[in-house]
Each structure stands twice: as C-alpha cells, then as structure tokens.
Design a protein that fits this description.
With 360 residues, the chain is mostly helical. It folds into 3 domains: 59-123, Dna Ligase, domain 1; 129-208, no CATH class; 211-321, no CATH class. Helices cover 51% and strands 8% of the residues. It is built from 14 helices and 6 strands. It has helices at 2-47, 69-78, 85-94, 114-123, 139-149, 154-161, 164-168, 194-208, 211-219, 224-237, 244-256, 264-271, 307-314, 340-356, and strands at 59-63, 104-108, 129-133, 184-188, 323-326, 334-337. A hairpin with a 7-residue loop joins β5 (323-326) and β6. The protein is elongated, with a radius of gyration of 37 Å.
Length: 360
C-alpha cells in the first residue's frame, strides 16, 4: 500500500504545481498587460499629436516676459490649439517647464505632440523678426510700428526719446529724436524690451557716425543733428540719389549767405500736407519747420534720412547754385540756377507744365 500513497502524493503535488504555474502565468500576463497599458498611456501623452491649427498651417504664440505657465496654457487655449489640455500640462510638469517659462514668439506647427511643443517652449528657440524702418516722418510712427511688432511698449519708446539725458548722448534733442534711426531692415526677437531696442539703435547710430563722418560734418560747420536734418530735406526734394550732393550744395550755399532755405518739403511737413505739388497756399503756415518763414534749419529731421543721403550731404558738391525747381523735360530731375532771374525762367516753365496737366 505504501507505493500507492506515494503515487497519490506525487499526483497532488503535480496538480498544485500546475495550478501555481497557471496563477504565475496569469499574473505575468496581467503584469504585461498593465505594463503595456501604462506604456501606451504615457506614449499617447508624450508622442500623440496634440495640436490642431484651424488654417492647417503654422501659427504663432506670444509669451510675454511677465507670463506664467498658466498664461501659456491660456494662450494656447485662446487660439484653440490644444486637443487635450490635461496631457500638455502633464508633459510640461514632467519636464519642469511649468517652473520656468521663457518669453518669446514661437512657431507652432500642425500635428506637434506634447513632447515637441514643450521642448520648443522650454528651449526658448523662438524665431526672430525682420523689421524694416523706412519712409517715416515722426518718432511716434517708429514707436507705433515697434510696439505692434515687438513686446517693447510704444509709449515707453516715446518717453525714452523725450528723456534729455538719453537723447543728448547722441547729439540729438527731443525734436530731432527721429535722427537716431537709420533706415534699414533689422532683426529682433519679439520679446525685445524698450531699453534693449533703443540701445541697439543707438549702437547702430554710433557705428554710423565714424570719426571720418564727424570730421566731414565739422568741415561743413554742422553738427550731427544739423546734417541729419538737412539730409531729410534733401531726400524729400528728390528721389534721384545722383542729385542729392547738388541739392545739398544749394542749401549749404543759402545757409552760408544767411538766406532762408525756402524748402518745399519743410512747409508741407509743417502743414501736414505731404503730397501737395504746389505750396503757395500753405506758405504762411506758422511753424519752426516752415523754412519759408524762419531762417536756418528746422529743429529736427522731417523724414527718416538714409545713410546714403547723409553721406551725400557730407560730400555735398561745391558750386554756385542758389535755386532749383523741377525740370518738366526730365521727370524726377531738377533745373538748377545761380541767379533769381534764371530761376524764375525755370520755375515758369515748370508751372506751365503743371497747368497743362491740370495740376493745382
């Protein structure tokens, strides 16, 4: 009977082992399923596309220097970019982005996942802006343009340009503050603050005014403000760069003789009527910018003078011309005269051409 008992015990053990094996396999299967589910859960949170853009094209978000993580989430939501806010917040916190937000202008691409978006914002890899400054007449126009395109505040820009300590460091005044800016295309990051913007423009200004250019201005017995102001008038008189040194020479001759400049662009500026062809009706405009009424140069530039035109003034032609007017036989060019009589002949010819075209 002993062998029979042993067989029964052996069979019992095998049954128990089989059950245990099944339990282990079941637990292992559950573990694998749980692990796979967890992996899929995190994979979906990290790598699944979580951004949708209404146009289907890249868009932008703007994060201010004072913004918090909550502001970033609100910015994304306000533009209806997030498919799932919760997963983005989870990824941001997992990456510690919520603890340090970097301001800037960021390009958001369709189909980005949470990991790509958080990495972009966390890296601070914003795309710079190219801003062109040209064809402007007032500091307020520059401030307005910069205020619309950058985080810099337009009111702060005007306030700084009115600050005597700041502006006199460049040989300028509140009235001539426009002269701080040279027409060109510049590159800025969106979150550039007011001070950084003006420091950069001041650096460009100082680099332009080399010792050689300063010496040229001294030789003309003009300071930087006066050169820039004269250049702004010259550039408004003609769009032909080859004429600029000649026109500059005319105005320098008149200044040296104590004559009024009688520059049409200045009275147009004073009257705020920049597109007029005939200025006879506005010559009495009361303004320090009206060089038909006042002697010398206006208090500041009437236009954003280019570096090329400033150089034309610094290298003005030496001649005896005191007058000029538009040449009706050569569009865009002028007729120059040394005497009033000669100038009147040229002027009458031009006026007749205006009458013939019905221009008043």
């Amino acid at each position: 009977m002993a062998p029979l008992k042993k067989k029964r015990r052996s069979a019992g053990r095998q049954a128990k082992n089989s059950q245990l094996r099944k339990i282990v396999i079941a637990l292992a299967a559950l573990f694998i399923i749980a692990l796979a589910s967890t992996f899929f859960y995190f994979y979906k949170r990290i790598f699944s596309p979580n951004l949708v853009l209404e146009t289907g094209e890249s868009s932008w978000i703007y994060i201010k220097s004072t913004d918090t993580f909550e502001d970033v989430v609100n910015e994304l939501n306000s533009k209806k970019m997030l498919l799932n806010q919760e997963t983005f917040i989870w990824m941001a916190r997992f990456s510690d982005y919520d603890k340090k937000v970097k301001p800037g202008r960021y390009r958001i691409k369709p189909g980005m996942n949470n990991r790509e978006l958080v990495n972009l914002l966390k890296s601070g890899a914003q795309e710079p802006l190219r801003i062109t400054l040209q064809a402007l007449r007032y500091p307020e126009q520059i401030a307005g343009k910069i205020g619309n395109l950058l985080e810099a505040d337009s009111a702060e820009i005007i306030e700084k340009l009115s600050d005597k300590t700041f502006i006199t460091a460049f040989g300028l005044s509140k009235e001539s503050a426009l002269g701080l800016f040279l027409p060109d295309t510049y590159t800025f990051y969106w979150n550039t603050p007011t001070d950084s913007f003006l420091v950069f423009m001041g650096k460009v200004y100082n680099e332009f005014w080399t010792p050689d250019r300063r010496k040229q201005a001294e030789d003309l017995k003009l300071n930087r403000r006066e050169v820039i102001t004269l250049a702004s008038i010259v550039q408004q008189e003609s769009n032909k760069a080859e004429e600029w040194p000649i026109i500059a020479g005319v105005y320098l001759n008149r200044l040296r003789r104590g004559m009024k400049l009688q520059a049409d662009p200045t009275v147009k500026y004073a009257a705020g009527m920049h597109d007029m062809r005939r200025v006879k009706g506005i010559l009495s405009t009361d303004s320090p910018y009206n060089t038909y009424k006042v002697h010398g140069l206006p208090p500041g530039p009437i236009y954003l003078a280019s570096g090329k035109c400033i150089d034309a003034v610094l290298s003005a032609n030496s001649h005896g011309f005191l007058f000029f007017c538009a040449n009706p036989d050569k569009a865009g060019y002028h007729s120059f005269a040394k005497t009033w009589t000669e100038h009147q002949i040229n002027a009458r010819k031009y006026w007749r051409s205006l009458d013939a075209r019905g221009i008043k």
